[in-house]
Design a protein that fits this description.
The protein is an alpha+beta fold. It is built from eleven helices and 26 strands.
Length: about 550
């Protein structure tokens, strides 16, 4: 008898969940204890185990989709069992006998291959339609930055098919199927809405031209077609021999997103971990049970990346008008859209204060003299902001038409410049972090942001933002509020100059701070009081350690 699996409540505050990854496909055998999927809650991404055994007959929530708790997540039952009534919301089939009869009749018919809802009703056996995934909660379309596989190449489960640029980051997109890449629907540099035809995978030599046409009947024709269909039998055989599921020899390592996150948090080298999941995939329990003492000697260090080639200089003849067009990236489009919305909808005003940095500079030298400790002035500003926000929660708010929401938790976003624009990774519960924890977290997030390795969850949930251009020598500037925040702090460079101290002109070090506020939520006096508290913390760093 078929069993309905609903979206579980995986945390006490969870009201809805997002399916980050399906680890089983329709038609797969399920044993009790198998990991069905990785589900993103409001607190973490967690593995969801099956408490039933049978065959996965139906998936109700595709990868990347969000649904309330108790929504239909999946159906597990006997192979070939009819579950149409369950999907429609009716009661289970009246009797087991009726269900068996229906399953027998259906088994005589040709089974459609499993695919996403957007796929045609019937597909040749083994053919999988891959659509543009939703890789972030706000993503409506994606851009294919790079294809890492070509038409005609063998694809193994876990291989990286492409790098896809979302509105927040460029992310690797793994294949959850194996076969031959028969068709590419979106060329490099091309953009398409989510659920558009991205690729088709299946047995070598399969004709998929009709499938591609059925997807594009109402829109533009896909950019590429399968041109190497006559090759691939040998290629597929090679792939089966040559593609291990997990490797420690310098090749790609297969691990679940949750395992990767835990490994990153714990500083575990994935190349030293033996996977216990399917095909050697590293899962959460492998990281939690890993002990460095049991690790095998690591492989030889990877070769350092070759220095990037210098961009060719554009020759501009004297007296001629020369222009160059650069296609707007998905990130740049979203930055333009959101900052324009912020500036034109939120009434901005700026408050500026000058902070004396002499004590902060001497305190930083003392702090950094401790072993394994590295704290920047920006880390000190972030810590001071977190403490000041707890004393002035109205700054830590957001506007909506009916209410102003005061956030009593502090999640500070740190603006990081990357090649294509700007991203804002978020330090969750910053007020509970020490200076050294803030420093380590900022370095980790900023490094992964520049390498395009941040996950969407790491850029969500900020309640306040800090932007620092002091390292570029900028002494003072005003930022645009990162909505839905109500304020953003702009941090300038530390400048040595004459100051008046105890009635005497002396040489001192100062720094300018500019607070951009949304006047709908923050009045001028409220913003000024926050800056006074912030100034006290920065000028007297010992108070931040109390």
């Amino acid at each position: 008898m078929a069993t309905i699996i609903t979206m579980p409540r995986l945390s006490d505050t969870m009201t809805e969940g997002t399916v980050a990854t399906w680890l089983k496909k329709v038609g797969d055998k399920i044993s009790e204890g198998d990991i069905l999927a990785e589900i993103e809650t409001d607190k973490a991404t967690m593995e969801f185990e099956s408490f039933n055994e049978g065959t996965l007959l139906y998936i109700g929530i595709p990868e990347g989709e969000t649904a309330p708790i108790d929504s239909l997540l999946a159906i597990i039952g006997e192979e070939g069992e009819d579950v149409t009534a369950l999907i429609a919301g009716d009661a289970a089939p009246a009797t087991e006998e009726a269900a068996k009869k229906e399953s027998k009749e259906e088994s005589k018919e040709e089974k459609p291959a499993e695919t996403k809802d957007a796929a045609p009703a019937e597909l040749p056996e083994g053919v999988i339609v891959v659509t543009m995934p939703r890789l972030s909660d706000t993503m409506t379309e994606g851009t294919v930055a790079t294809w890492l596989k070509k038409v005609g190449e063998a694809v193994a489960e876990g291989d990286i098919l492409a790098e896809i640029e979302t509105d927040k980051a460029t992310m690797e997109f793994e294949s959850f199927n194996e076969g031959t890449l028969l068709y590419i629907g979106i060329e490099e540099g091309g953009s398409a809405p989510i659920d558009s035809l991205l690729a088709i995978i299946g047995p070598a030599g399969t004709d998929v031209s009709g499938i591609a046409k059925s997807f594009t009947a109402g829109g533009s024709t896909p950019a590429a077609t399968a041109t190497e269909e006559e090759k691939p039998a040998a290629t597929a055989e090679k792939a089966q021999e040559a593609t291990p599921a997990a490797t420690n020899d310098g090749g790609r390592i297969f691990a679940s997103p949750l395992a990767k996150k835990i490994a990153s948090d714990k500083g575990v080298n994935l190349s030293q971990v033996k996977g216990s999941g399917e095909n050697g995939r590293i899962v959460k329990s492998d990281i939690e049970n890993f002990t460095p003492a049991a690790a095998a000697p690591s492989a030889a260090p990877a070769k350092a990346d070759a220095p990037a080639a210098a961009a060719p200089k554009l020759f501009v003849p004297a007296g001629e008008v020369v222009t160059e067009e650069i296609k707007n990236s998905q990130m740049r489009k979203i930055i333009a859209k959101r900052l324009a919305e912020s500036l034109f909808t939120a009434p901005h005003y700026n408050l500026v204060i000058e902070v004396t940095m002499d004590d902060a500079m001497s305190s930083r030298v003392t702090i950094n003299s401790l072993p394994d400790t590295k704290v920047s002035f920006n880390d000190m500003v972030i810590k001071a902001c977190a403490l000041a926000l707890k004393k002035h929660p109205k700054i830590n708010s957001q506007w909506s038409a009916d209410v102003i929401t005061i956030n009593h938790h502090v999640n500070i976003g740190v603006a990081v410049a990357v090649e294509d624009g700007l991203v804002v990774p978020v330090l969750k519960f910053t007020d509970a972090m020490s200076l050294s924890q803030i420093g380590a977290s900022v370095r980790d997030l900023a490094g992964r942001a520049k390498n395009k390795k941040l996950g969407p969850a790491e850029m969500e949930g900020s309640t306040f933002t800090v932007s620092n251009l002091g390292m570029f020598g900028i002494t003072e500037f005003n930022s645009i509020i990162n909505q839905p925040n109500s304020a953003i702090l702009s941090v300038g460079a530390i400048v040595e100059k004459p100051i008046v101290k105890n009635g005497q002109i002396v040489v001192g070090n100062t720094m300018m701070l500019s607070l951009a506020c949304d006047h709908r939520t923050i009045d001028g006096a409220t913003g000024a009081q926050f800056l006074q508290t912030l100034k006290q913390y920065i000028e007297n760093p010992v108070t931040m350690l109390a």
